[in-house]
């Protein structure tokens, strides 16, 4: 079940009306049942994985807290890590590692018959796995008390607005909200309604219309090439440089609209019920550098990597070369988290190298005190950052490394234009998204539309609703459901 479906349009109002009639304890039980239904509607068989993660981490955390013996604490911590990561590894990476190992053996002349399985990737497994892992680690670090109420903990794991695509919530934030009485306020409903409207606008109107530009560029126009295996790109001209550039740019805006749109809707739905989730995106395309970009993009995941990976493998006092190696390693790991494909690994490595380069550059040329860039400089910095990001987008979107190499070859060698309709649609969608984002960025508020008086604000809402209903495309799922 997805937010932009008819099923969800029927599902949420029904559960919300019941939710409002219940007290806090009954609300939690009802939300838990609703969350299991929400997830099981896709494939009920994978509810068992949710149950395993919930049960193992619930009891492991209690044993960690109760034990006075450090070895016992570590045993149950490792039990949680092994249980969650082995499930994630099997469903997400089994075939990837088997096929990669087969390719390595073949390159050395060893014939191997790969044994792969027809494995269905459970919806949102990476998100809820990381969320439960952070809970167990927090209990081990004594940053959090183990939760004794099993139903409350189960709701933390399965809370349906953010279950399948985040944001990745910390137990220190979400469990106290689950355990306390929540107040549904008019302000919360207004803010939640605006977030849902903007989220649907980003997803249904921006992202899904951009998909109609991106998908043909990254699929049909690049079919049937075998020139790399022949050792020559000389006659490869499937795409023009303009098509490649638009494809890269459109994809990064598409995935932003898709993912940020989901996060906005999730937070909006949560506000309707009195919950507050972490903000996952903060106008990343106005970033002044790659480092600034990653402080604004998928914030909950980047914070997770910082707190549960980077702080484990390194310290602030480490030598600078080691810090950069750690940074590259963490970004490469983030690439693997996104999917079982070497394109994601290379994408993560590229992002790590580029962010380390920017750190070195900023250290060599520090900003003066009271630095306040003029508008032109700010625009130039944002454009350069955007160019750096879209280069990585072709890696992220390509089905394999060979495809990506040929894509780059066309970008730099096959000068040419693009169909007028494709370019016009890209510029129109980009401009409309920019207007919304710029207004929020300028006022440093995702609720900046509240500053308008009633009539102009109502007209903006009607316009956004009109774009969603009349020109939106509601047939696409969310990209990050498969991560």
Number of strands: 0
Number of helices: 18
Number of domain modules = 2
User: Low-confidence parts, pLDDT < 50 over ≥5 residues?
Assistant: 223-236
Largest sheet: none
Can you walk me through this structure?
With 483 residues, the protein is mainly alpha-helical. The chain has helices spanning 6-20, 24-40, 47-66, 70-107, 125-140, 150-158, 171-179, 186-217, 227-230, 241-272, 290-296, 299-313, 320-338, 342-364, 375-397, 401-413, 420-442, 454-471. The chain starts with 5 loop residues before the first helix and ends in a 12-residue tail after the last helix. It is globular, with a radius of gyration of 24 Å. It contains 18 helices and no strands. Helix content is 69%, strand content 0%. The protein has two domains: 6-182, no CATH class; 187-288 and 373-482, no CATH class. Helix 6 (150-158) packs across helix 7 (171-179), helix 12 (299-313) packs across helix 13 and helix 13 (320-338) packs antiparallel against helix 14 (342-364). The relative contact order is 0.11.
Structure summarized in a few sentences:
The chain is mainly α and about 475 residues long. It folds into two domains: about 5-180, no CATH class; about 185-290 and about 375-480, no CATH class.
Show the helix and strand layout.
Blueprint: H1 6-20, H2 24-40, H3 47-66, H4 70-107, H5 125-140, H6 150-158, H7 171-179, H8 186-217, H9 227-230, H10 241-272, H11 290-296, H12 299-313, H13 320-338, H14 342-364, H15 375-397, H16 401-413, H17 420-442, H18 454-471
